[in-house]
């Protein structure tokens, strides 16, 4: 193909642009002005026609404070205009990229300071033509010997790569504020930047994968797929660009920011090409003879070159400029590439639409594929009601369908199951003259990644190493075989293992009297420190202690380094570390729903509540309400909140509950088969701290307390941490019991809250230093669905334990025992601990204070025989009043002879009927004798 430009030589050209009249200079003695520009280099994305998103580097423009944004980063960078050639040009460059950059302007002299490096063959080579601006830096670049013309500024560091990435823009220097080169008058000026894009190069550079030994080694492998004019590849229907009114002169400034030569051709008009790289064609300017322009309709534009062309008296009309080398495709699809239309005619320059946001809701679609709600927010700065904005949505690959691609917020329906990947939606917003393009990605995730396994490194494992002397410690309860210690300053012990992703990090040490209370610990990701702190090894020995500052993100190798920071009087222990992933790392989208609630409901239950559990693709879940509930094949009904009302039945009746939940463009359903029974009988329920109904907030490590229920118990020392035990019960009276394990630091007043159906029914405090590893009665309550018992931790002054909770229907109880000190027991006056033998529990109490009382409040319904226990002592009174009240109604006062039958159960009153609760009060009535309070026992009467 013949690519030679078509040229006609014209010896004379009488146009206002190049009149020979000399222009006025600066007044003698007047200092030259300084033009300052403030540019910031940063990364952004550019969406190509067809939806491919390419990472770019570009210049944003700011006011002098670098806080007031004038122009977002784009390609090309902003056109910088210096209105007088005798000015000084200063560009303040701020680097927000991750690599060094610099600025040069070919054709303009400046102080240069090249940056050299030695390659892998020992050769000294140039990396940058001038001094560099490193990441995070701001530096100045100055030019004080300007001449009129058009130039291209660009990065002088690895220019073959950084200019390709987008670090370029135009500079035009005027001879003076009223003309461009020599003659009088200011023409219409329009810049045309030619460039090309190879997405593989851009992705490799943005990912740090460009250079020797990497996926792309150099621009020798450069294969462009997109060809741009002014940063835009042509697409069908692209509106023309306004280029002035008809009958006026037009100055076209051509810039080639690509790696290849291009051949712009202007259809239907000839151009007077009179300058390149800011140099007028000979003869020299400012002499009394005209220059000799090249009169032609196309030109050769080499890489990095600029050329100026003048068109005089341009008639109104539509004119096409394109690359004669036929770079007219977008990723091999036509039409596209280097093509643009100039609209010359009456009017004012158009301002392109501005897009402020493009969104997709949801932006993560389940693999089953449903719908997404798209939305674009745009405005027309010209605000012309005669030309409303026109929208055109396109989907990558063209699968699926829009309900209306011409509106701002269409719904897109996917065709069905899709392969995992990223789905790009592009929207073109046009005001009839200019088009602005935006894009948004929707992710179709693959199968959830399995949870990463937990990693524990013991002091004897392959990943453990030490510097100095670390003998075996005699500390109890080590992880694995033993632990080690050191008392030599600056000795270190390192735990190292392969680890990726976000992890919580735990550490163990064993107890010993010499342990140090401020042991330095530092965590590393490879060689990079993620943080350092100290741990107190005088506390929490023999347990996994969560290290502060996390969770930590690792990218290959995790290291925990312990350093000895004391003399021989103290010791530092190294036992084991543990890395626990914070999540499965899967996609966050709804995978399915599950109906949560009992599968057997008695017709005696007035109402039973159901919820749904939303299970996400990453395995996480949450309880919520669906939009639709229903129950089929029965006379039962369920309301919008999930409350099920059942009919009275004489035989078991099957029913099916259905739920429908819509989220993220998809509708999910679930069914639950239940049985409605006649006279449903409540059963006993026990929830351990490891069961599904147990939910902690905060940090609850495993306790070293002995004899837990089932596997273990947990504890907390953090104020406000909670541990909840949740279950669905049958709407009947239950005795609620709690277990905890013993430890010297246990608190004596741990808050416990009891609720059912979301409403509180009881609040008690328990002394966890008493009665460990046994069931302790909290009280008797009527409980139904969504029953919770919540333990709350206080501050680090003591520990709070959570082990297990038991709900026993009162109908199953053979007796109810309330000991002194149990929830529901309270005193007035002075009561000391008695030395009497054989108390119920750990002790009993006594008083000689007249008027002192000891009260037992018990929630119970039914008929009971009431028993009391006391301990023997020579001073006991022989007529101690026991007052029994059913709620506020007195049942009677019964005197008991405490000089007899100590340490055994004694009948106080038979067949007492309790409506909801009972208060049994012991009165101290004499100072001459002692009154004892030990325990009360209720036995259901036949």
- Point out poorly predicted stretches: 1-29, 284-290
Which bin fits the share of residues in helices?
under 10%
Beta-strand content bin:
over 45%
Question: Which structural class do the helices and strands define?
Answer: mainly beta
- What Rg do the Cα atoms give? 42 Å
Global outline: elongated
Distance between the termini: 112 Å
Mean pLDDT reading:
85
The number of helices is 2
Give the beta-strand count.
72
Main β sheet profile:
8 strands, mixed
Descriptive overview:
- With 942 residues, the protein is mainly beta.
- 2% of the residues lie in helices and 46% in strands.
- The protein is built from two helices and 72 strands.
- A hairpin with a 4-residue loop joins strand 28 and strand 29.
- The longest helix has 8 residues, at 199-206.
- It is elongated and about 135 Å long.
- The protein starts with 6 loop residues before the first strand and ends with a strand.
Keywords:
2 helices, 942 residues, mainly beta, 8-stranded antiparallel beta sheet, 8-stranded mixed beta sheet, disordered N terminus
Helix and strand arrangement:
Blueprint: E1 7-9, E2 34-47, E3 53-62, E4 69-74, E5 80-82, E6 88-95, E7 115-118, E8 124-128, E9 138-143, E10 149-154, H1 159-165, E11 168-173, E12 188-197, H2 199-206, E13 226-229, E14 241-242, E15 248-256, E16 264-266, E17 271-276, E18 279-280, E19 294-296, E20 306-314, E21 317-323, E22 339-344, E23 354-361, E24 371-379, E25 390-395, E26 401-402, E27 411-413, E28 421-430, E29 435-444, E30 455-458, E31 464-467, E32 484-486, E33 492-508, E34 519-525, E35 528-535, E36 545-546, E37 552-563, E38 572-574, E39 576-581, E40 590-596, E41 600-602, E42 608-609, E43 611-616, E44 621-624, E45 628-632, E46 637-638, E47 643-645, E48 653-663, E49 666-677, E50 685-688, E51 694-697, E52 714-716, E53 722-727, E54 732-739, E55 750-756, E56 759-766, E57 776-783, E58 787-792, E59 800-802, E60 804-809, E61 816-819, E62 825-828, E63 832-833, E64 845-847, E65 853-859, E66 862-869, E67 880-886, E68 889-896, E69 905-914, E70 917-923, E71 931-933, E72 935-940
Parallel strand pairs: 2-6, 5-11, 12-15, 14-22, 41-49
Antiparallel strand pairs: 1-19, 2-3, 3-4, 6-9, 7-8, 10-11, 12-13, 15-20, 16-21, 17-18, 17-19, 17-20, 21-22, 23-24, 24-27, 25-28, 26-27, 28-29, 30-39, 31-33, 32-38, 33-36, 33-37, 33-39, 34-35, 34-37, 40-43, 42-47, 43-44, 45-48, 46-47, 48-49, 50-60, 51-53, 52-59, 53-58, 54-57, 54-60, 55-56, 55-58, ...
